Amino acid sequence: MAEPQIVDVVVVGLGVGGEEVAGRLAEAGLSVVGVERSLVGGECPYWGCIPSKMMIRAANAIAEARRVDGLAGTAQVRPDWAPVAKRIREEATDTWDDRAAVDRFVGKGGRFVRGSGRLDGPGRVRVGDQVFQARHGIVLGTGTRPSVPPVDGLADTPYWTNHQAIEVEELPESLLVLGGGAIGLELAQVFARFGVRVTVVEALDRVLAVEEPEASEVAAAALRADGVKIHTGVTAERVDHDGRRFTLHAGGTAYTADRLLVVTGRRAHLDELGLDSVGVRADQRYLAVDDRLRVTDGIWAVGDVTGEGAFTHVAMYQAGIVVADLLDHFRRAGSTPDASGTASVTGGAMGAASTHAVSGSSGSAGTVPRADYRALPRVTFTDPEVGAVGLTEQQARQRGINVQVGTAQLGSSTRGWIHRADGFVKLVADADQGVLVGGTSVGPAGGEVLSALAVAVHAAVPLAQLRHMIYAYPTFHRAISEALRELR
Ligand SMILES: Cc1cc2nc3c(=O)[nH]c(=O)nc-3n(C[C@H](O)[C@H](O)[C@H](O)COP(=O)(O)OP(=O)(O)OC[C@H]3O[C@@H](n4cnc5c(N)ncnc54)[C@H](O)[C@@H]3O)c2cc1C
User: Fold this and answer.
1) CA 42 to chain CA mean position, Å
2) What pLDDT, on the 0 to 100 scale, is given for residue 337?
3) Region of residue 400 (phi > 0: left; psi between -120 and 50: alpha; otherwise: beta)
């Protein structure tokens, strides 16, 4: 067995969360080994947020050009996927090459190891035939993979996940999308706008089922207007592939298409991580963490694997807490960086990490921020966008909150009327506390309007103060003032 190599921290999985933690700790002067088996950066830059938003930007340009008719003359649009595929290949992913990201990490003083990491007893990580012993901590940022439902025949077919959908160079004529959540709807609308005949099949009784029912209605209507066929309350029973086309049997109907995209959620694969070697159960859905992202003594987790919200902004937020907690831990242990370290722990090269815990603090645990997901924002980048923060009306009622709800339609606001926009702002208030506990903004800039609602929920701004605020005219966000008046 190889002699363990002693380091300060080992980070397993360099997706958004792991890369941020590993980079910032390395910059702070700790000796950090970052282990990644695929691409440094993870799903977001290569198969997730960034390329999908490039696709959406292009698809929205087509939709906007089509709106010229009746508003500003006539415009003819001939969609072409080639520039989109090229932009994803060349600008977003560097042809799915992470050399720049690896160099960035190494440039910060980190040591990069390509391979699959697995816990091998307390403080130890094994990667192939190398073993690392972490003096101060191990961080698991191993993310999730697509969760593929156990539908008869599906596993034997060449179905797409988000990877193939993002990498596609030539669009199919028709596409079945299994799953009507955020990712399914975003991609369905993009492909439909480029002329693909798209059918969405969702088992629940509405698309975007985690959001307000009104948001599901607007999103479904928008996709239908783009030609997408949506079937809800339909459970997939069997999938066949005849070498050319897919047939999905569901609810007594056979749906056929050239391609089948499966986007029915994501799953953490805890069984591969050697958790039993440190006394942590591997049969959980996600890695349970406390509010400092600790899994157990000496092990932290960050990002999707924690199940606290599968968003890049959650991974980044958690990374800040993990960095602060680990540096706090490091200081308390009275450690100094390795000779190979690039900076002193109390020195100025700690960057953003220093604002959290170490710089200017005596290292008391009270300075480490605790994770708080009350104001978790999320955006589905369909057109119109669906932005939401905090609790939905139903969630608030289930928690026994004395709920007040106020809704304003964008169409009855001046800007919405001028824009001919579909959408609304819906507020969910705790009448006893006099604050918002949730909000949804659907519209052409629903994700941007959301920021005001996120501040209100996060800072628990009193409703009286929100009502007394001046809302610029004529903006989409002015619908918030109207929704406040409707609260009852
Ligand atoms: C199509 C799509 C669109 C999305 N759009 C958005 C969006 O608009 N906004 C948003 O906020 N979020 C979006 N997301 C979600 C976002 O991509 C994730 O929340 C984010 O990538 C999570 O980061 P992570 O670090 O937790 O995990 P990941 O990005 O999944 O990274 C985990 C990494 O760990 C590696 N790994 C796993 N196990 C091991 C091991 N044992 N050893 C070594 N390496 C390992 C994996 O190879 C991977 O690189 C989207 C996702 C998809 C699929």
Assistant:
1) 12
2) 58
3) left
How far, in Å, from the CA of 414 to the mean position of ligand 1?
40
Question: 318: Cβ–Cβ under 8 A, 6 or more apart, which residues?
Answer: 17, 293, 302, 303, 306, 308, 371
CA 40 to ligand 1 center in whole angstroms: 10
Model pLDDT for residues 61-89, shown as the tens digit of each residue: 999 999 999 999 999 999 999 999 999 99
Please list the alpha-helical segments (H only) found in 38-174. 43-47, 49-66, 82-87, 99-107, 162-167
Closest CA to 417 of 474, 487, 337: 474
Q: What angle do CA 94, 96, 100 make, to 5 degrees?
A: 55
pLDDT, tens digit, for every residue of 87-137? Answer: 999 999 999 999 999 999 999 999 999 999 999 999 999 999 999 999 999
Q: What is the pTM of this model?
A: 0.94
Q: Whose CA is nearest to atom 2 of ligand 1?
A: 48
Q: Separation of 71 CA from ligand 1 center, angstroms?
A: 41
Across the range 257-286, mean pLDDT stands at: 96
* Nearest-angstrom CA–CA distance, 62 and 55: 11
Which residue from 130, 271, 312, 380 has its CB within 8 A of the most atoms of ligand 1, so it is best to mutate? 312
Could you tell me the distance, in angstroms and rounded to a whole number, from the CA of residue 332 to the centre of ligand 1? 32
Return the closest-CA partner of residue 480 out of 434, 431, 442, 444.
442
Q: How far apart are CA 289 and CA 359, in angstroms?
A: 26
Atom of ligand 1 at shortest range from CA of 16:
25
pLDDT band at 335 (very low <50, low <70, confident <90, very high): confident
Rounded CA separation 66/74 (Å): 8
